[in-house]
Amino acid sequence: MSAPADRRRPTDADHDDETRLDRATSRAVRRRSLALLGNLLRPHARTLSWAAVLVTASTAAQVSGPWLVSLAIDDALPALPDDIAPLAAVGVAYLAAAVLAGVTIGAYRRVAARIAQSVLLELRRRVFRQTQRLSLEFHESYTSGRIISRQTSDLEALRELLDGGLVGVISSILVMLFTAVGLTILDPLSGLVLVSGLVPAWFLVRWFQKHSQVAYREQRTWSARLIVKFVETMTGMRAVQAFNRESTTERDFDRIGEAYRDANLRIFGINGRFAPGLLLIGNMTVVVALAAGGWRVLTGSLAVGVLVAVLLYVKRFFAPIQQIGMFYNAFQSAAAALEKVSGLLAEEPTVVEPVEPVDLPVPRGRLQLDHVRFAYGDGPVVLPDLDLTIPAGQTVALVGTTGAGKSTIAKLVTRFYDATSGRVLVDGVNIRDIASPVLRRNVVMVTQEAYLFSGSVAENIALGRPDATREEIEAAARAVGAHEFVTNLPDGYDTEVNKRGGRVSAGQRQLLSFARAFLADPTVLVLDEATSSLDLPGERLVQRGLQTLLADRTAIIIAHRLSTVEIADRVLVLAHGAIVEDGSPDELVSRGGRFAAMHGAWQDSLV
Ligand SMILES: Nc1ncnc2c1ncn2[C@@H]1O[C@H](COP(=O)(O)OP(=O)(O)OP(=O)(O)O)[C@@H](O)[C@H]1O
Fold this sequence. Notes:
alpha/beta; Rossmann fold; 2 domains; six-stranded mixed β-sheet; disordered N terminus; binds adenosine-5'-triphosphate
């Protein structure tokens, strides 16, 4: 019943830093974005049809203009002054067409804008939901800056497309289509002239597409890199300043900024040739239509009114191409953005929910790692073959050199990652078979960073159990020894953390996260102990809080302080992913191995 071992495969999201994709990948990426677009538009099918009716009516009304002009010149004017009725009829028809075109285009724009805005909102929601849904493995390889750029600049590019032009361009394309048809019906020969003008225009558009696609991908990639660099530097500002990295990061930032500028300049270069090129082709076609039509008027085979209508049509036909050309920029960048967003949305969590979850009726907290082997992705093996049983209620301290695999064990027990092979069991149940809400309730991880969200102290503690009452929150804080300092904060439990006055020290932060875990009351607690050295009273306070937190539950502590190890029932010494020593702290000290050496060094440091 266990879900199959599912190592993270390289997916399309991994390609999104590349600007030149091979043909097959490019096609797959395009298909994926189109599928996403279709999926987003499907709920609006009815509104879309209504928008289509409106825009078609408006276009038909607009395109009737030149034809009415030709009627006025060729039929209505010659009837004057004897018969004014034809001219009046044409005038009224022209006015009616103009009003109809205006009213319907206005309605179309409003309807289309509503669809565009709901599509954007839905996309924003999906990106956010997806980033929360994906496993830790994804987040550890896909930098937060890249996710931010998906949520900001990529969605912004889509917004620009939808807000600034798509709606107008759809109606422009229709105008072109109707104009071409109207012109061909009015005068087929001029229709041919128009088609001959389309040939060079087509080549120019193809040239533009080819070059601008690469240029736009490049632009988005550099823009994302710029954001990544910025976010990385800002979030790591302490390290940047502590290690004097300002000039290096500045150099890197400049280099990326310059590459971004160059990518933008390349786009301007391409556009700078495209727009005037199209204008030239359009004007040349008008000239040819005028010359050919003028000659035919002279020979009497074409009416003047028809020639005027032909010229109006040809001119109108090319005007939108230019708009479409300019719009193509926004379209390209939005298409590239959609490719990236759809890549992110196509990612599947590597930690898969069980199809038929098994319940944990009375959780006791017996933990087993049964021949667990683990490697991050295709990387080297971190845990070759780990076999370990922790009876319910035992406090185990994991010690060992850095990189030995301690945090990896914590991530496997809490199922942030799945073992490459072997099983992790809680009370005899494979954790792959436990629904994640049940698992998260029973197995809680307290990390080093003891992250506090913006909000009050009470709200931060209540994260452990959102339905907890104020009394329960305070009781939890009292139990781990956090109550005293909280009541000394400006607004007590209602103090906003992360704001002036609400700043808490590293030790206090830890106590708050202990209170949070105490309130959650999990069966198994995994604790990545903070390495930050607390002062002695602070350490004693945390130590006492920790003891209360650990009582009556299974606990794995990644111990960085030997004072913490002393409160453990059992110590596991880890080296290169294998347990090399296992026993109570006293046993290990008397056995005289690695732990005894560490312990001796610690004792010496105390005197
Ligand atoms: N997300 C990751 N992707 C790839 N490799 C990783 C990842 N996290 C850890 N590793 C590698 O796995 C090995 C074990 O790391 P782990 O964090 O479990 O060690 P640790 O014993 O907890 O070390 P420390 O005491 O320094 O925290 C290391 O070689 C590390 O480079």
